[in-house]
Amino acid sequence: MLDGKVVVVTGAGRGIGRDIALMMAKSGGRVIVNDLGGAADGAGADATPAQEVVDEIKAAGGEAVANFGNVAKAEDAQAMYQQAMDEFGAIDVVVNNAGILRDVIFHKMTEEDWDSVIAVHLKGSFNMAHAVAAQFKMQASGCFINFTSTSGLIGNFGQANYSAAKMGIVGLSKSLALDMARFNVRSNCIAPFAWSRLIGTIPAKTDAEKARVERIKEMTPAKIAPLCVALADPTSDVTGQIFGVRNNEIFLFSQPRPIRSAHRSEGWTPETVRDHALPAMKSDFYPLERSGDIFTWDPV
User: Fold this and answer.
1) Where does the record place the Ketoreductase domain (predicted)?
2) Is 3.40.50.720 the CATH number for 6-255?
3) What is the pLDDT of residue 202?
4) How far apart are CA 198 and CA 202, in angstroms?
């Protein structure tokens, strides 16, 4: 599918990113394996994970090089683009997978908790897209695969920073799809369900939460990779969409559209909004649900 195409995968040293990098290479892609090698909260750095993935790809007969940059830094993202051009003479696909977690209930969340998560997820996705956008425009081709989460799409406890970043990525991905469609550049989002070291940091206190964690453990990161490769296929025309992958299920998510309206020819006052508009719409209000309330069935 990807014979000779050059793919950058961020956060590719472990988990979902690792399996994406491996399958991209198996499908013929030449891969820049990026990973800072930090802890789940972003602290520290270790070149080992990215290099191990590169070694695994090469041992299987593929082509790959390691990159240890921090996507939160624009200069590191630019260096990734330059490395792809220097090593392989091209860049065709960017997979914005890198992420960290700083989970904490909102009233205890610090500004640093907020800034660090936004920087890696949202600004990191922007940095990578911005670094390659001019090249994609010039060659009239390219593909962005961005990672969102049901924590943003639906909601979750203790993840205001992560949820906001992941919903921001949805808007970024759609804007990339709209702005760059004229240059034959595509952009899509994936919300993955898969066990990873990041998921492992989420506290599970109740029996229901512990049971949900056990279900997630059954969903291996390798299940996410086939959709990524299919979206990266240069013959694909899919763009501007939000997908989910849960074990052997692939979902297409809805996108916000008006579902009800209320009208008064004379206009609205605060009182008529309270007494007419809000009651008229109330039957269609969304409850305060989180991801686990929606995806209640066992993975298949």
Assistant:
1) 5-201
2) yes
3) 58
4) 7
